[in-house]
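Technical annex, item 7. During the second reporting period the consortium partners agreed on a shared format for inverse folding records so that results from different sites could be compared directly. Each record opens with the tokenized structure and is followed by the designed sequence. A conforming record, contributed by the partner at site C, is shown below for reference.
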């Protein structure tokens, strides 16, 4: 959404064909709203590079500038994707979409200065039809320093289109010499919501009419005084100036109070955002700590197994030694990742921070290579660790799931929730690290594969079990894939996300070790629901022992023992 500076036009195709009311209404956009982005590309990108990229995208940039012209949404989306390739992040993309916005208004800015940001936002909502023929805007609330705007479209728009709209909205106050508006986005069409909703706050501008009214009132008082006294003295001449000064002071106090209120609201919103960032980072660090603890326990099992098999097979010992070394290397490199990620979050990086980021990326690449090598060498077996039972309070367990799910979904538009039913037991005795590993895999998959919608978790109970229900609105799992996704490497056929394809097979093996179950129901493309059954009482084994599955037949046996599929479509 932006303020159009041209009279209403009849939309037409790039080739000149009309899009009148008697024809099928093809979604069109006024090309003028993309002029700042085109200006940015022409001034900031090498002309030869831009020309090649434009030709590859199949359009000419002249389409988006010059006189009034309407273009299809498909062509506009092509430009947005092209521009996104030339910037580093979404914030830079928004800046590019509002690049030198005031230059496109020309002398019209003089007219705008006689109004207010609030009036311009209201005008933008009323003239949405001048910008596109498929969207409508609604002003939910409005005040001198804030508005809530809701936008709906009859066709799907990408996330980039929403970002370009946000750029125009936040940049409008700059036409009045004010800072950019603060925008909080609640929902987005580009992320599956039925509409976009923007909460806008901006600083108030100074009004000069209180000063003028004060001066006029002082002049009128001076005139009345002159009529009564028959003359004026030198002190009386200062009366209009004094009244104008009073009006100026009152207006200054008003605008200062209003802008301090905006500052406090924006500051509170930023503090809340920073708190969420901190909690998400802390939870992710705890996830990494759980991974390190798991690897430590795997190392201990490998040490014990290596000693037991040393006399039986030199080849087996060598294989275990290689695996142990790889796991040790993995643990060492994992310690680099949190610090590198912390450095990468800052807006401005020093040379040391940039080096830390590079070290982190290099470490991740090494982890990827070593893990894949380990998976190849360990293809015929999966080591499970000795159990370490402890009592776990379900209330704390549920709170931890809430934090974990919030951290995994942080930065997305997914709606997430965790709630506990009355049927849930108060506590259970289990291996917390093993259960965490099961749920980390399932929650991570739910967030990774769900591009829009929600992930909901319900902690409940069944006779002898604590149950955890995980429901997402992702693409679902087709019936033809159920026989593959629970096998090691079975989900590698899905290229939507990067991974080793072993997450669900690990879940099955770990649940089998504690006597748990996994039930699943999936109805593509409406999502997937998992039910995890965790025994309330876990008796520790008499002696720590290592279980493993060595063949496809064992994988089938575990699948039949642990997994139950409900109504897959």
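Designed sequence (site C submission):
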């Amino acid at each position: 959404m932006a303020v159009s500076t041209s009279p209403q036009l009849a939309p037409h195709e790039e080739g000149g064909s009309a899009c009148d009311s008697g024809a099928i209404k093809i979604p069109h956009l006024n090309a003028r709203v993309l002029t700042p982005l085109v200006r940015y590309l022409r001034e900031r990108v090498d002309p030869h590079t831009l020309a090649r990229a434009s030709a590859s995208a199949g359009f000419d940039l002249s389409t988006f500038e010059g006189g009034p012209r309407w273009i299809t949404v498909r062509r506009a989306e092509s430009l947005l994707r092209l521009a996104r390739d030339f910037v580093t992040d979404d914030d830079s993309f928004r800046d590019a979409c509002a690049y030198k916005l005031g230059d496109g208004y020309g002398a019209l800015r003089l007219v705008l200065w006689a109004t207010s940001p609030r009036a311009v936002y209201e005008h933008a909502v009323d003239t949405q039809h001048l910008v596109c023929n498929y969207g409508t805007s609604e002003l939910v609330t409005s005040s001198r320093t804030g508005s809530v705007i809701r936008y709906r479209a009859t066709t799907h728009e990408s996330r980039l289109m929403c970002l370009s709209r946000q750029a125009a909205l936040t940049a409008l106050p700059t036409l009045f010499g004010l800072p950019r508006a603060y925008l909080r986005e609640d929902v987005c069409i580009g992320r599956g919501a039925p509409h976009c909703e923007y909460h806008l706050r901006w600083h108030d501008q100074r009004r000069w009419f209180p000063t003028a009214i004060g001066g006029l009132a002082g002049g009128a008082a001076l005139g009345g005084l002159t009529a009564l006294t028959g003359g004026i003295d030198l002190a009386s001449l200062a009366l209009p100036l004094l009244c104008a000064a009073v009006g100026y002071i009152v207006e200054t106090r008003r605008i200062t109070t209003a802008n301090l209120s905006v500052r406090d609201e924006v500051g509170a919103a930023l503090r809340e955002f920073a708190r969420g960032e901190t909690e998400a980072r802390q939870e992710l660090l705890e996830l990494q700590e759980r991974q390190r603890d798991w690897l430590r326990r795997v190392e201990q099992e490998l040490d014990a197994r290596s000693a037991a098999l040393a006399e039986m097979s030199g080849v087996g010992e060598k294989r275990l030694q290689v695996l142990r070394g790889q796991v040790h290397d993995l643990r060492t490199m994992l310690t680099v990742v949190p610090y590198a990620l912390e450095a990468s979050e800052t807006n401005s990086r020093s040379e040391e921070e940039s080096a830390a980021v590079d070290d982190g990326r290099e470490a991740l690449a090494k982890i990827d290579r070593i893990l894949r090598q380990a998976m190849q060498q360990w293809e015929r077996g999966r080591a499970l660790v000795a159990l370490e039972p402890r009592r776990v309070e379900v209330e704390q367990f549920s709170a931890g799931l809430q934090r974990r799910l919030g951290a995994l979904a942080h930065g997305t538009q997914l709606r997430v929730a965790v709630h506990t039913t009355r049927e849930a037991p108060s506590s259970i005795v289990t291996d917390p690290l093993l259960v965490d590993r099961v749920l980390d895999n399932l929650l991570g998959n739910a967030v990774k594969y769900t591009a829009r919608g929600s992930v909901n978790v319900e902690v409940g109970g069944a006779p002898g079990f604590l149950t955890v229900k995980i429901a997402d609105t992702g693409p679902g799992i087709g019936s033809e894939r159920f026989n593959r996704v629970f096998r090691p490497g079975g989900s590698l056929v899905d290229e939507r996300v990067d991974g080793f394809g072993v997450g669900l097979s690990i879940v099955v093996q770990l649940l089998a070790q504690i006597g748990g179950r996994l039930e699943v129901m999936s109805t593509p493309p409406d999502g997937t629901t998992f039910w995890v059954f965790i025994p309330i009482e876990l008796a520790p084994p008499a002696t720590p022992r290592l279980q493993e599955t060595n063949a496809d037949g064992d994988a089938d046996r575990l699948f039949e023992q642990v997994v139950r599929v409900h109504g897959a479509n």
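The first helix runs from residue 35 to 44. The chain has four domains: 28-201, 209-273, 277-377, 390-566. All partners now use this format for quarterly exchanges.
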